[in-house]
Amino acid sequence: MGLAYNTYLTGPNIYGCKNCRSHLSNYDDIVSRNFRGQHGKAYLFNNVVNITTEEPTERNMTTGRHVVRDIKCRGCGETVGWKYDKAFEKSEQYKENKFILEAELICEVE
Ligand SMILES: [Zn+2]
After folding, report:
1. How many domains, in total, are found in the chain?
2. CA 74 to CA 41: how far, in whole Å?
3. DSSP annotation of 96
4. What spacing in Å lies between the alpha carbon of 88 and ligand 1's midpoint?
5. Residues 6 or more apart whose Cβ sits within 8 Å of residue 80
6. Which residues surround ligand 1, an ion (CB under 5 A)?
7. Which of 24, 25, 86, 88 has the most crowded Cβ, counting Cβ within 10 A?
8. How far is CA 48 from the centre of its chain?
9. How remote is the CA of residue 64 from the centroid of ligand 1, in Å?
10. 55 in a domain, yes or no?
């Protein structure tokens, strides 16, 4: 199938898609490990590469109302987390334009 991704990250700790191992983000880009996704533990990242974003939808979460988009791995089409477009609570606005990756769906890659 050839190279399934365009961006190739370098560094000691790269996170990739568990399914196809496309590079997704970097250990240094983790903002918080204190999140929960649909599959359990999830991390908040400053930046994620090699993904496609879905249409924005409004979701009520335990931390309030948010506009989010599901994000999919560009390599295999698997949903790996979501992106925060907008948070309505002031205390949650640090998450805007950041990304959640579900720990269960990613792995450390070389
Ligand atoms: Zn993938």
Report:
1. 1
2. 22
3. T
4. 31
5. 17, 24, 51, 71, 72, 73, 101, 102, 105, 106
6. 17, 19-20, 22, 73, 75-76, 78
7. 24
8. 6
9. 30
10. yes
Polymer length in residues for the chain:
110
Report how far residue 72's alpha carbon sits from residue 74's, in angstroms, rounded to the nearest whole number: 6
Q: How far apart are CA 63 and CA 51, in angstroms?
A: 25
HSE-CB at 10 with a 13 A cutoff on CA atoms is 0
Residues of the domain holding 24: 14-109
What is the pLDDT tens value at each position of the chain, 110 positions in all?
445 557 888 888 999 999 999 999 999 999 999 999 989 999 999 999 999 999 999 999 889 999 999 999 999 999 999 999 999 999 999 999 999 999 999 999 97
Instruction: Look at residue 6 and tell me if it is in a domain.
Output: no
Q: Which two tokens stand for residue 62?
A: 């335990």
SS3 62: coil
Q: Which two tokens stand for residue 38?
A: 């649909």
